Amino acid sequence: MRFIVLSVSLVWVFASSAFADIRADVRELFTHNMDALDFARVKIEVDRMIDSSIDVEAQLVQIDDMVAAIRAMLPRNADSWTKVEAIRRYIYQPGPWNDGRAFSYDHDDPYGLDVRNKLLSDYIQDRRGNCITMPFLFVILGQRLGLDVTPAMAPLHVFVKFTVDQGVTHNLETTSGAGRARDQHYRELLPITDAAIANGVFLAPLNAEQSVAVIAAVVVEELIEQERYHDAIAVAEILIEHYPMFAYIMVKKATASYHLLRTEFHEKYPNVQDVPEDQRPYLAYLQRVNQGSFQQAESLGWRPLQR
To answer: CB of 180 within 8 A of CB of 290?
Structure first.
């Protein structure tokens, strides 16, 4: 047993220098004041981890300009629904407020499989969004207008929970004009189990810490795309630490470990018996991560989505 622990530890020691910076950057996100979280800053800071050319302050100014344009549409003493309608108009209807270029759903990449399409800057530039950029832009604008808006999860999807002045909460589906949608709508379209709802995996409003984890999920996706699988596992563990019901990232962690199993073992050794003795603890470790991550997600009620 001592040999196994030492072997796995050495793997992480050698790998740690390669991903220390990204791990520290992601941990830094959770040092924000969660009681006054600025969704815009967090989203743009995460995007900058993907594209270092992003100017955080310049993008924040751009967001402020968008909010100013929406405020100009509002009557005095506008209530919460009036503000929502103004955001809808600004985003989804072409006019001078958006230079005649309305924002729309990107049917060519609806899931944001190209990680760059999940960057807020990309959405604002090409006006084609997905179920990450569209809800988070709505939340960002709504937050700056004083609305009670938070993200919520469905399988491979994020939508907006909006609570009106009278305390009633509504779902807003931002990939479809931010119209109202019942919880049952998502259950009819997607594999959402009773267990997933009971465990808070899907359809529940996210708190600030959970929201940061969902925003940062794109970092794990990018690391997997770059074949930085150890990095992806490490960052996934940070996100799960702050959002223990984050089934999507558990599956991504399992995916990263699968790629390590594939590249380090399956492609090198036709049979398990061919694996060198000193590599078997590492093999066992990756197998535990892979199987354990899937089992953890499934125990929470997660089920795979057939695209």
So the answer is: no
Beta-carbon neighbour count of residue 288 at 10 Å? 12
CB atoms within 10 A of CB 20: 12
CATH code for the domain defined by 36-190: 3.10.620
Contact 210, 246 (CB under 8 A): yes
Could you tell me which of 218, 216, 222, 200 has the C-alpha nearest to residue 32?
216
Q: Which parts of 51-79 fold into alpha helices (H)?
A: 56-73
**Cα–Cα distance measured from residue 67 to residue 63, given in angstroms and rounded to the nearest whole number:** 6
pTM of the model: 0.91
Task: Say which residues have a Cβ less than 8 Å from residue 119's Cβ, sequence separation at least 6.
Answer: 47, 50, 51, 54, 133, 218
* 78: nearest Cα among 164, 12, 189, 153: 164
Give the domain ranges of the chain: 1-31+206-307, 36-190
Residue 54 · residue 116 · CB < 8 Å = no
pLDDT in tens, 265-287: 999 998 989 999 999 999 999 99
Both tokens of 287, joined, read: 């197998």
The answer to whether residues 136 and 151 touch, using CB atoms and an 8 Å cutoff, is yes
Q: Among candidates 215, 214, 198, 221, which has minimal Cα distance to 246?
A: 214
pLDDT in tens, 82-104: 999 999 999 999 999 999 999 99
Token pair recorded at residue 121: 């800057």
Report residue 163: phi and psi, to 5°: -105, 125
**Residue 241: its H or E element:** helix 229-242
